[in-house]
Amino acid sequence: MDLFTFYSPSSVLICKPCGYAVPPTTLSTHIKVHHLYDARHAATNLFNAPQSRNPATLLANYLCDRYQLLDPAIVKLPTPPATNLPIPELKLHRGYQCTRCSFVLRSQGKEAEISMGRHFNVHRLVPRKPGRQAKIAGIPAQDSGPMFTKVYCQRFFAAGAQSSFFTVNVPDKVQELVKSRPRGHADVFRALIDEQLTAGNDEQDARAQIYNSQVSKTEVSPWLEMTRWPRYFHGLNMADVAPLAYAANPITEPSLVLFGESFDRIIERAHQSICEDKISVFDQAQINSFIAGRSGKHDRMLIVKLAKSTFRAYKGIWKRLLCFVYRTSQPTQSIPLLHRLTTAQLFHLDRALHLAEELSSLSRLPRSDTPPAEGEGAEEVVCDLNRACLLLCIALLDHTIQGDHFESVVLSFLAVLGIDENPGGVFRGPLIYSPDLSKFIKMAQMLVVQRSVVAAEEGEVEHPSDMLDEMRERFMACRLRSYAKKVVSNTTSLGYIAWSEDGSSVTYKDTGFSMNALRKFIAVEVNKAQKELEGLFLLHPDEARDDVVPQVLLYRLQDNHSNEKKGWNFLQDQRNADHLDQGGERWLLDRVLENDWLRDEMLTISPESQLQWKKKAVQAYFDKVDAFLERLLLLIHMTGGQPPRGTELIGLQHSNSAQGQHRGVFVEEGLISTVTSYHKGYNITGSTKIIHRYLPKEVSELLVYYLWLVLPFWQQLDILVYKRKDPASTFLWPKDRGTWDPSRLTKVISREARLYLDTTLGIQTYRHLAIAISRQHLLCGGFKRDYSVDKKVADQQATHGTWIAGTVYARGLQEAPGHVKARSAEYRAVSREWHSFLGFRTYLGARKRPLGEGSDAGSLAKKAC
Length: 865
What we know:
This protein is an alpha+beta fold and 865 residues long. Among the domains are: 222-485, no CATH class; 524-837, no CATH class. The strands form 6 sheets. Strands 5-4-8-9 form a 4-stranded antiparallel β-sheet, with helices on one face. A 3-stranded antiparallel β-sheet has the order 1-2-3, with no helix packed on it. Strands 10-11-12 form a 3-stranded antiparallel β-sheet. Strand 2 and strand 3 (20-21) form a beta hairpin. The model is unreliable at 291-298, 679-687, 783-800, 807-814 and 846-865 (pLDDT under 50).
């Protein structure tokens, strides 16, 4: 009911309408005198006794039974501290408090002045001697100052025992309201309640930081039940635990920085050991098959061919582990974590710390002394630190668990790594967490390999495989990542796609655009690419492209997909010689040499009669090529069908490489086909997925003209001007020229989308949007396995599956290795749907028979089936 409120700190019952507390002995009388109507209402609704003769007593007894009320006449009530905010249900008064004691009186008229005078004299009375009258003494000098200060006060009881006032803390803004408004005004209480709500919310926020693992039985999470993280963090402030696993601070933690540098050197040596096959391919397969129960992995070597940025991210996880071990081993660390370092771990940690401090002291020597990089002593310390750091890492892995698995500092660190520090986050899910776990495992494998190699080099064992088998059996077992993948495959991620009612506009998080805007965006990009290509043809303002540039007819171009000769591509196919005879490798170079204005722009004759290229003009041309390749990268990404990942696209090769890698650019029935085989799971599974994407005619022509006329000239200038000696790159976006990586694609998409779509866009965002568009507007959309071929009855009749039929039986003479005709036809259909949706004219390609021929026979055959 709304009549009373219970103030638990002092165990009193406060009457809200009256503004003071009521002792339990007078509660019945108070209700009867002041709130009889409420008592009758309560008797009817609460106690189902409408005819009760004494509803006040009935209600008073109910309240006394419900709350443990203290009687002020018997028990001393706890008084709220002076720092507390006012109690909203009690009346607030202005008053005075004695500066020498806790006496508080309400300021009201002459009676208050008299009380102040009496209390003033209490502090000035001199203790009287027996038989003599008390005297009033002067105020001591050290006790000078005002006797009373103005305060705000409240009291529980209006009269009787313990009815004295107590001081409360009223914020400044509330004081202004109290002074300007009459007592009991709504604004005053609103301000007081706001203050109390703020204080209460702050307290709740502080308590919410302390993790509580108690959950309802309906709150199930297979992932958390597997990891046991809730039990690990129970009672801990996760915001305090997470920084323990942060990267080293170079200013305050120099030793940890040296740890990180030493770890970098260890991983570099491990990488070198694996690349040089210091452990056999069989041992590499063994270390790579540490997940029990996984079949088909024993024939795959340990893959360490990673990009530099990827290596940095992988090493960063282990560096954070070393920081976590160091910080949690310090005596000043007060957070009660469950892990315990073993004797071996403490020994190697202490040894590594000692060497790091020694190396740090050597680096602080004056310049006149021998620097660490050149001194033999410093080199020896670095070698010792590397070895100590390697042994420490192995000791961290080699932790025998007999009780709680969180006794292992590695598993403790992996739990801390699972904290989601985003606003409102608690734990990272398997979709986000499993990549970090893969990084940790990859580095652990390399550490184990390097420890085996070092042991063999130092004579501890005869062969690296001897120690490798021992370590693998003892501690290289981890099923958490496998379980994470299983959870991910059976768990949907959060949804962010939203469509307009008519399906014409789509949004993903904060990114959105209409379908018409997307088509206009693609059209603008194609037009800009055409203009940039004209600039690469070095056309004069008075020249028309059709009059100067040789024409190429895509539908006449042929390609032998099965040709694996080094450096070969479709431009070298003899069947295309008649169609490409007007252009060729020297077309642009001859143009420069034959036109006076181009010679003057790009060439000069030195005083020694030597031909010299103007590097400024050549560099400007190179910049134009770079800009065109950026736009071509965007167009191939967005117009070939479902978009590839950035790493897959950047890895396209226009010609067969010297390493035996097959090219990824083909001509097929009048369109350019890009074929990617690398994908993000290759370093985990060792298998590839061959995906075909077909470019629309307009984009195909851009790529053909670039490969046919521009690329040869660019390579010739590289030789003539910059004296390049190495063979030309076979990559469409050369890795040795500029920073061609996925970030470049993100940059160009983001820049162009801001200009022409008025929104932000990136690789991952567009992948989500493209899949949503295909499901909404294209027939190819929907949930399908992207790497399967439908089973056909004819193949089953031949006692083999459709996959075997496509990869082994009756393969065409010009099918490239790994390509399957049935699958490429399906991919082409998907790409053609995208071409039509984006506003391109759909190119049908050459027909096997004239339109209409054999249609009746085909219909009869279908009916017969």
